Amino acid sequence: MKHSPSLLRMEALLNEWLWQEEYWLPPGIRWQDIETKEDKGRFPLPRDLIYTLPLAFAFIALRIVFERLIAVPLSKHFKVKDRIRIQAASIPKLETFYKQNSAQPLQSDVVSLSKQCGLSQRKIQTWFRHRRHQDRPSNTKKFCEASWRFVFYLASFTAGLGSLINTPWFWDHRECWRGYPKQPVAEAHYWYYMLEMGFYLSLLLCVSVDIKRKDFKEQVIHHIATIFLIGFSYCANYVRVGTLVMLVHDSSDFLLESAKMLHYAGWTKTCDSLFVIFSLVFLVTRLVVFPCRVIHTTLVVSVEFFQPFFGYYFFNALLLVLQALHIFWANLILRMVYKFVFLGKVERDERSDEESEVDNEEEEAEEEEDECSWEQRKGAINSKLASLANNCVLNNLTNQRNINSRLPKAR
Prior knowledge:
The chain has 14 helices and no strands. By secondary structure, the chain is mostly helical. Helix 7 (about 140-165) runs antiparallel to helix 9 and helix 12 packs antiparallel against helix 13. The longest helix is centred in the last third of the chain and has 51 residues, at about 360-410. The chain is globular, with a radius of gyration of 31 Å. The termini are far apart.
């Protein structure tokens, strides 16, 4: 099959700048040495990664169908309750400012809007608070998102464990490098890579519409680092150790998502128990297995089989970024474990179950304060009315007694 001159020039440009062998392969190894040969099986090639982009869009479409046909009915079955929020009044000027400028206006903006709308500054602030509450995701939306991730992570972990448990490098990590980089890739591991990278691409594409959580920035960094890690490890044929990295991550993620689902459904005791299991698995896999086994084999053991090159440093740098994120999340999880042990329950998901807005709790406290103050004012009004009514009754009775006492004298 003949290629057009433009494609040939593009391929030559990529080979000159991006696919230089010293970036991706150890010294003395060329791309021709690991080209696909039918008698030796499949070998990873950079062009294979182009298939992950349509897979990402396929995951997005599948997610939409899954949430509508399965997740929403499942949330109803679990009796997930959405919080009833006060609807902000329809004020066009405030709505325009909210959408075009900011959801949290400055004091100067509040003063200006107060003059434009003829409302007090307190009412302007209350309107924006109620409007922000309207845009917060409901428990049903959170449940649907968690259930989608739970299904993928569980399927990915099960399939990954099934395809790796009989491989020699699953038990002996030195086998990850024996014969590197001339290591054929099994069909199951090829699809394991393609589907994992396609899924994380779909998460990155949907990051603007997904729920923004407390660790939003860390999640974006995690997705980007994971995509680079999967892509680079495939191109450099770090597939054996790459499959171990993905398996370690999937082993605890599906437990977290299932705990979230139970939390939104109100199954507090089961959620707390599952969260303890998740915490143990996360701490062991991310703080013990990942650094002591995976990073150790890529950083120390690998140099026994080849000389360090650019890919060696780049791959290990990405692994260290992931490890830093593991430490960050482990800190949040340990805080929750502390609350569980000393307070008797898991109050909230410190890791990622809170929205990213800093003032959420303050706004809810203000809203509750408004409701309490209204109840207090209503109680005060009722007490005053009752007192007034009692005074009126007493006055009427007194007047009636005075009239009755004067009647005989009149006669």
